[in-house]
Write a structure and sequence with these properties.
- This protein is mainly β and 158 residues long.
- The protein has two helices and eight strands, in the order ββββββαβαβ.
- Helix 1 links the parallel strand 6 (89-91) and strand 7 (113-115).
- The protein is globular and about 40 Å long.
């Protein structure tokens, strides 16, 4: 499986969990998850996805667990998680992301676990933007492998 087209999950509105990890998916149509309005768990990790459309998760308002790690994503649009206010667990680690839109992440008021590590983020604003957030993070994995931090003391908020 390399492509997820718009009609791929038609008629699966009661689907709660969808695991599509370890495929060769490189393309996901913008409306592919539209029929899955009751989806709470989505795993599209370990694929070849390089682009996440801004409205890809627009219909998955009940999503609480999302794993898009281990792909080739280099950019995530600022509004991509806007409809997902119920997210509690988000893993976008092990990608090629150079800039993380953290202000929209701060609006995920139920987010407990955030995994950003092993990306190519090379600026110190990650911590400065996350620090004033009121999200109840229990775990925030930044894995400083590529992260270039100037002030390591800001990590104390975790």
């Amino acid at each position: 499986m390399t492509r997820l087209e718009d009609d791929y999950f038609y008629g699966l509105m009661w689907l709660k969990s969808l695991i599509l990890s370890n495929n060769n998916i490189s393309y996901i149509a913008t409306q592919v998850f539209a029929p899955t309005v009751n989806l709470t768990c989505l795993d599209i990790s370990h694929n070849k996805i390089s682009y996440i459309a801004t409205k890809l998760f627009a219909s998955t308002v009940n999503l609480t667990w999302l794993n898009i790690s281990h792909n080739k994503i280099s950019y995530i649009a600022g509004q991509v998680f806007a409809p997902n206010g119920n997210l509690k667990w988000l893993d976008i680690s092990h990608n090629n992301i150079t800039c993380v839109p953290l202000q929209p992440l701060c609006k995920l008021s139920k987010l407990l676990h955030l995994y950003l590590g092993y990306n190519k983020v090379r600026y110190n604003k990650v911590i400065h933007i996350l620090t004033p957030c009121t999200i109840p993070l229990v775990c925030c994995n930044l894995s400083i492998h590529f992260l270039d931090l100037v002030n390591h003391t800001r990590l104390l908020f975790m």
